[in-house]
Design brief:
The protein is α/β, with parallel strands linked by helices. The chain has a single domain, classed as Alpha/Beta hydrolase fold, catalytic domain (Rossmann fold), CATH 3.40.50.1820. Helix content is about 45%, strand content about 15%. Helix 2 crosses helix 3.
Length: about 260
Amino acid sequence: MRTYELPDYLVSGEGPTTVYLLHGAYGAKEYWRCTTQALNQAGYRVVAWDAPGYGTSPVPDTLSMTDMARVAGRLIGATSTGRNVVLGHSMGGMVAQKTADLFPDRVQALVLSATAHTFNHSGPEWQANFLATRVAPLTQGRAIADYAPEMLRSMMGPGAQGPAIDHVLHNVRLMNAAGFQKAIQATAAYLEEDVLSRIAAPTLCIAGELDATCPAAVMRRMAGLLKRGEYHEMKGVAHFGWAERPDEYHQVLLSFLGRTAPAY
């Protein structure tokens, strides 16, 4: 990977505890708007990034999960406060795990949202389907804006609707195809199953009961592998818990933060 200093990021709120928001493969810093508001209102400072290759963050020559974690670590080092929490969703949850592994002194608490600890989590059939549904449309000449909103709908629970859902679907239309393909390649190459055993920070795992992308059973197992893992399963929810049912998601999140990384 070419030398990569800091990605594009947005800071909001003030306070001694900063929550870093790391989006998924179909995302950007803007899709966290609802969660950012909930955290700011509770007194937390928030830093939301555009991962390498997303938003206005340049597309790197090569990209791995470790590369992204090193960039995240530099971002925390440059913008940190007294206490720092990393919240990663989906791909961002993999980045969050590796960041805590590489920079344990910079991460006081961790939140893993609808993610996994390795690309091997559900076997070869799942892997093949994952790559076919995400990369194949691009190789067939379709633009992300043409197929991704419908695909994201299929990754949500029945009846998912509301402003947060609309915001996710709007932001996915703006993604950079080149950066996205690098990120998917990095996700598919992430096979470090032993990272969880090295994470000492208190960690909340939030899963969706209906999530086929990062199954609840996988996240329940992850919580058990962590030294200080907690698990919460959102019933009737799939992959985008913070958008599908914001009130429950933010209540669980703020309860965990209040016990492990208070706002003040």
